[in-house]
Records
---
Amino acid sequence: MPKSRPVALITGASAGIGRAFAEALADRGYDLVVVARDAARLEELGEMLKTKHSTSVEVLPADLTADEGLMLVEDRLKREDAPIDLLVNNAGFGTAGRFHEISIDKEIRMVDLNISALVRLTHAALDRMVARGSGGIINVSSVAAFQPAPGNATYSATKAFVSSFTQAVHEEVRARGVRIMAVNPGFTRTEFQQRAGMEAEKVPGFMWQQPEDVVAVALKAFDNRRAVIIPGIINKMTATFSSVAPGVVTRKIAGRIMKDPGAARLPRK
Ligand SMILES: NC(=O)c1ccc[n+]([C@@H]2O[C@H](COP(=O)([O-])OP(=O)(O)OC[C@H]3O[C@@H](n4cnc5c(N)ncnc54)[C@H](OP(=O)(O)O)[C@@H]3O)[C@@H](O)[C@H]2O)c1
């Protein structure tokens, strides 16, 4: 019997970077399981990919901050009769503002989605992949992972977790035939900034990337078995600067970019 097409499960596939992953993976010959809360947008994506690439698309609407939604997706990842070859943990959101002024419920929901859901889905998928000796996971982190960011404190910390966690697990499983990689985009033209209430129009044009470009870089790096990739020269320079410059300076600069007034003045000494 000929080998069936590989299957990728993408979270947050209804918009932005997740949707771009869906299109790029369909183009590479993957069938898809697409996850997000908005079922209508997932159906529309499925129809488009069926027409354009003859992709088989399973629509799995789920809220990954709710136990019920999370369990639905975990169960799908564990199915032995229809294994998942590639998991893209992409669903995530941010908030903007000083931590003590943001609703704590929203901050905890962000931790639930950006960290807890990603850890649980990675665990559900990895178990089967290691047993099979094949498969891969791409975790969408952020260039914010490299830098504590005043005005974006919880978000940047969730992404620092994703990057650290992913690179450690990469080493644990690389000899077992399974790949796991973190991709760390910078400012990308999606719905992210609007949903987070960020003032995107104040970010200079040269700092932005398109989601398709982020995904193309991520998939090439994944092919090359990288543990981590930072798409875009500006983002690479930002991450490098953050790792060598003193924290007292980088925190202030990050605060300025995030428009946190408390971080607006650089230290005099
Ligand atoms: N855009 C950027 O500048 C940027 C930079 C660095 C990293 N990132 C990261 O890239 C990833 C994708 O973000 P994006 O830029 O593509 O943003 P986006 O356009 O807002 O898309 C976010 C996706 O996540 C889904 N989602 C949100 N909450 C969810 C929940 N509770 N359960 C299930 N799905 C949920 C959304 O779908 P529904 O609303 O239908 O659920 C949507 O499909 C995120 O992890 C983000 O942190 C983005």
---
Amino acid sequence: MTASRSLLSPQLPVALSARGQIDAFLAMDVMREAAAREAAGQSVLHLEVGQPAAPLPETARKAAERALAKEADKLGYTEALGRPSLRARIARHYKERHGLDIAPERIVITTGSSAGFILSFLALCDAGARIALPAPGYPAYRNIVRALDMVPAEIALKAESRWVLSPEALLEEHSVKPLSALLVASPNNPTGTVMQPEAQKALARAAEDAGIAYISDEIYHGLVHEGAEESILAATDKAVVINSFSKYFCMTGWRIGWMVIPPELVRTVERLQQNLFICAPALSQIVAEAVFEDTPALEEIKAGYARNRARLLESLPKIGFRDILPADGAFYIYADVTPFSNDSRDFAATVLQETGVAITPGVDFDLERGHRYVRLSFAGAETTIAEAVSRLGDHLKG
Ligand SMILES: Cc1ncc(COP(=O)(O)O)c(C=O)c1O
């Protein structure tokens, strides 16, 4: 792919790679703009990024302090696959939370789930491979796939199927041109849809039968408000599971996550990790192991999200937002804003400028239909969400 190689500038006459020319992650762009406004004195409410407002809970914070005070000499590289004690702790989590026996050897500690996507795509797919991605979906999937010289095959989710990918839709896309992998998130970002266990199993079975690798992004596990939460690992050992300490565990900036992979893939992923990242940050691995002891505090934080969700589901329709998508899990509302605008980018920019409420335009998540939607994160404090609703209501009335 050399077609769009272009010179950086006359002053620096080197060529840019075509694959580096991916779209921006708009939520992060909005976050930068919101931070600049805040620094300039505007009162900003952050509903743009999926980031818990709650601080790191106490046991984990104390583990960080202890590690820095007493174990600083141990904060070097770890084994590429991660500290054995953390891998064992995650295996215990699967037993306790899901009743599943997962061998710690199948668990890989990653630099956030973001690194998990790169490792999965590189382990499973060659350049040029087609990867099925339901839309709307997390924007970085599409952009990482492009940066790796693979091809995103977006499949439009529909209201009729409650914004869940059906086996039929997957196989139809596969019949157009073969797919190498499918990446599904449940709960989904931005729709909040949770796939029920039977639907998830049927999709995984269809993918496996067709030779399509099933990658399950379970980053919003622990944050299901309606319906059942089940890891795909309950149905199959062949899937690749990606998870993270960023969301339920409130550790976004620590850049730490994990994968559960089939035994046959471990050595390949280990070699990729050794060379691409060496290992996940050592301090973050220590803190992640401790954060499991903070479950009571994390459950309280989750209860706050549930209250935020209830408030938004009740108040947003009253101020004119339409067709709010399921919001069964995660901490997002994805809502139709066509009563106000047919250009969600413009709508979000105006709302930020005039009210200080930062939200993300739907075009981040869905190139085709996202101009009609915006995403609001309710991972913030309850006072923030209440104030945001009030400001939005006043603005949209006017
Ligand atoms: C669905 C989904 N997957 C993955 C990520 C990336 O998370 P991290 O790299 O912090 O684990 C996010 C972040 O918002 C997300 O929404």
